[in-house]
Amino acid sequence: MKKLNLFLYTVFAVVGIMLTGCSSDDSDEKSETGKSKIGIDLDNVKVEMGEVKTLTIEEMAEKIYGPREVSSESVEEFRKAVLRNADRYEQKVESQYGSNGSEPSYRYCNFNYWSVDAFGEPVMLSGCVAWSTITILSQTTDLKPERVALAPHYTILSNSQAPSESLSMEMAALVGECLVILPDYMGYGVSKNMVHPYLNHDLCAQNCVDALDAGYKTFKEMSNADLDDSWKLYVTGCSQGGANALAIQKWMEMHPDFAERWRYQYSYCGSGPYSPSVTMKCYLQTNYQSYPCTIPMVLNSMRYSYPDILGQFSEEEFYSDKYLAKKAEFDEMLAEKEAESDDVNDLFFKYFPCDKRKHVKLSDILNPRLFDPSSDLSKALFACLEKNDLTKGWTPTHQIKLYHSKGDEVVPYENATAVVEAFGTDKVDLATATFKLGHLASCFMFLTTLTSDLW
User: Fold this and answer.
1) Are 439 and 404 in contact, with CB atoms under 8 Å apart?
2) Where does residue 114 fall: left (phi above 0), alpha (psi -120 to 50 degrees), or beta otherwise?
3) Are 157 and 337 spatial neighbours (Cβ–Cβ below 8 Å)?
4) SS3 for 106?
5) Between the chain's N and C termini, which has fewer beta carbons within 10 Å?
6) How far apart are CA 173 and CA 168, in angstroms?
């Protein structure tokens, strides 16, 4: 029996070496070319790295989604899907290597990197990179990622929800041989004192793309593995992250050499505001909003991003007298970045009650001039929003995969149909939710699809 155990230990030690890919041939190739598997010399990538931490899949589900007794039904369904995916992956490892009791888990590490602000000035941003590891016979080995997922996150208001602070929902869905890179966005993490450029798609895309080389370098230096020879890059996100995922694809299409170096495949986007102007028109037409915290976020971002267009107007000109009476309280909450979106939304519902539960009337929030398309204020705002319309100004050569619900009030379904109409069904695969789900339920359903064999 001792000889058998020694034999098994030796076998899995060899398997561990195979999984890490730390062969002498790989080392020699890197020393000769001065390049890594992403085709550049990592010595030229400036990055600050944090401490590597490890969580089991169960611990990660708890950390991201909270205790089971307080989670909502949709969150709990997604948690179950994540754990089922982890079980499937564990079974795959056991069938592949003949081991009982293997345990998959995640390692992750925060990093700071350099990008640019809205005016092209250098700014330090932050993010998190995570990869899979497996423990077999008490020996833990990092897996060689076959997929790299750049995963911009959904809309947050609290800095505590940034990936570098508390990881991200997208991360737990991507169990297996995957390297996940999660940018914080400008305005969160190390740059939390800055304005977040909400719906400034070009800037958010640039900030996310700049995290790729830095995230890979962090993984390469902190892991005992490297990318698998067959690795490929995908981009995925939901809600704001969905729009940013498509914006990243636009950036990739306009920088084909970079896309080729990173082996870019396609974007998978869930419930995203791909056309901010279409989204705002829907809001103004219905006059109802169930996620009102985004209104000052949009206006703050557009004023920051386009002072040449909106600088002619005072900040107060965008709001109603009723909102201006409470504006200071909202401004403080948004600037502190301690309150979560639900907290800010609840304050809106408290101060601006209307005939529709858990909604506000935009006419209680916004200046009446914004409802008049011919007004100078409306024209200026929509000129800024049009600059971030992802259905214009480029032609995709890679596939676009979308998921959306016709029942989404926060990000209307018209966003998805606008992408299809712009680029055609040959390039755009639109999956529509079976039921008319609300925005949050639609996002969780989208995230659940990430746990399937999508890639």
Assistant:
1) no
2) beta
3) yes
4) strand
5) N
6) 10
